[in-house]
Amino acid sequence: MENDHTNFYEKDIRELKEGLTPFPENIFVADQAWLGNYVLPLISVDLGILWPDLKGTVLHFLNPTEPYEGVIGENTTDFHTEFCTENWLAFRLTEDNQYAFLGKEEYFLSAPKHQDTIDADFTEHIKTIRDNYQRTKARFKMTGQLLPWQEDNPQSFLDTLGGELWEGNWTFMAPVPPAFEMNVDDSGEDLPNDGISMTYQGKEFRYVGEVSGYNYCGEGADAILLFYEPESRMVLFTYDWT
Known about the structure:
The protein contains two helices and 13 strands; from the N terminus they run ββββββαβββββαββ. By secondary structure, the chain is α+β, with helices and mostly antiparallel strands. The chain is globular.
């Protein structure tokens, strides 16, 4: 992932700017409205902030309501696709900036097909994270801040926007889906993007940024990482758990 795509980098974003829209709505294609049962829209980012040539292209950070334990997708391997596997899920961005999921509904453990396999703790976790999200959303409408916990403890809208990749649990927790390729160069120190490069059909993904699920839902991944490949309009998520 070449760093010359952008010089923009900002961390711990607590002031909204043009192009950042928390709690976006109507972001899924019409025939996949069921996605709202499994992933929660946190904030939309107009990529023109990072890359002027992509102004008007808008991506949406998503926090899954799963997992309760482990990582998303690890208990639904029979329903993986070449784009969506353990700890990785992908979307195609439509021309009107909606997401088309490149997996199956049964990828999600809370899908109706799996109801006989989940327990009360899992169900309670789903309820808790959704309730926390709705409370934070309501508080944002009143205060303009993210308040998943105490009302005097606002959280960042984004932990980072732009900048470079970093090696973490996400790089080795699970292989990237077969449709993609990730290479990690560990030949030396101080390599750009920690030596990490990720591609789709030979085209390099651009790294958009990250945010913790905790900031919006009081629970979730420690880092939700978002990538974009402009030519294919491919959107890719992975999740870092410390």
